[in-house]
């Protein structure tokens, strides 16, 4: 086993331990706006007293939650914005989310590709065709649309042989606008009763606008192709 695989194995064990602790102590089910608001003073005081530890726990926990293949980027960013403020919340959320996404990608590519390839064979054909046609803009648009779960994007990109550095930077570009929006909403957490309250019409229109911007290169190619026929 080379050094890269050793580091990957250690990372998997650390995140697996974090996931176990989240479930063993029942922490995951308490991550709701109501529970956070009820314990707001305690959480804020804890962050102020143990800022570095709180930030590390938040980032590791975020990475662990992303590995659970659940659509939790929004709630994580809201918590980050509430606990650490807008820009620190964005930074810590992005580090945790991207680490979780990257680790998921590496696990599929180097450990599970032979297990999941048959399950995703049909989707992989379509994914490969669109990647050949649109390139990295397709990956960014998938991230911004927030319709396709992250774990499916991660799995397809890993199976399709997308270079890791390409997957990493497109994930950052695609995730950042969403994280900023949700972290900003986190500053108003006292007014939020459930996660669905964040998805207002204006919020959805903003996300849709970002997705359209990401898809513009694909739309232009489609129009040009139609004109040449």
Can you lay out the helices and strands and say which pair or pack?
Layout: H1 3-24, H2 33-38, H3 40-49, H4 51-66, H5 73-84, H6 86-116, H7 121-134, H8 136-145, H9 150-159, H10 164-186, H11 201-228
Helix pairs in contact: 1-4, 3-4, 4-5, 4-6, 5-6, 5-10, 6-9, 6-10, 8-10, 8-11
Whole-number mean pLDDT: 78
Strand content: under 5%
Which consecutive residue ranges, at least 5 long each, have pLDDT under 50? Answer: none
Radius of gyration: 19 Å
What is the helix content? over 70%
Oligomer: single chain
Distance between the termini: 53 Å
Sheet having the most strands = none
Shape: globular
**Helix-strand sequence:** HHHHHHHHHHH
Beta strands, count: 0
The tally of domains stands at 1
Discrete helix count: 11
Q: Determine the structural class based on helices, strands and strand pairing.
A: mainly alpha
Description:
79% of the residues lie in helices and 0% in strands. It has 229 residues and is mostly helical. It has one domain (3-228). The longest helix is centred in the middle third of the chain and has 31 residues, at 86-116. The mean pLDDT is 78.
Search tags:
mainly alpha, 11 helices, 79% helix, 229 residues
Short description:
With 229 residues, the protein is mostly helical. It contains 11 helices and no strands.
């Amino acid at each position: 086993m080379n050094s890269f695989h050793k580091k990957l194995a250690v990372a998997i064990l650390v995140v697996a331990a974090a996931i176990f602790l989240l479930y063993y102590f029942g922490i995951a089910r308490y991550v709701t706006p109501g529970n956070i608001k009820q314990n707001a003073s305690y959480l804020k005081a804890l962050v102020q007293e143990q800022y570095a530890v709180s930030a590390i726990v938040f980032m590791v926990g975020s990475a662990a939650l992303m590995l659970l293949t659940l659509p939790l980027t929004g709630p994580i960013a809201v918590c980050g914005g509430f606990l650490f403020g807008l820009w620190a919340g964005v930074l810590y959320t992005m580090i945790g989310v991207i680490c979780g996404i990257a680790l998921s990608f590496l696990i599929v590519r180097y450990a599970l590709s032979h297990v999941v390839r048959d399950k995703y064979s049909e989707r992989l054909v379509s994914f490969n065709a669109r990647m050949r046609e649109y390139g990295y803009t397709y990956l960014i648009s998938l991230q911004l649309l927030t319709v396709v779960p992250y774990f499916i994007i991660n799995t397809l990109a890993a199976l399709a042989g997308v270079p890791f550095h390409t997957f990493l930077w497109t994930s950052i570009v695609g995730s950042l606008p969403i994280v900023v929006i949700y972290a900003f909403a986190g500053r108003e957490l006292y007014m939020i009763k459930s996660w669905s309250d964040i998805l207002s019409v204006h919020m959805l229109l903003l996300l849709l606008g970002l997705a359209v911007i990401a898809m513009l290169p694909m739309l232009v190619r489609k129009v040009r192709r139609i004109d040449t026929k």
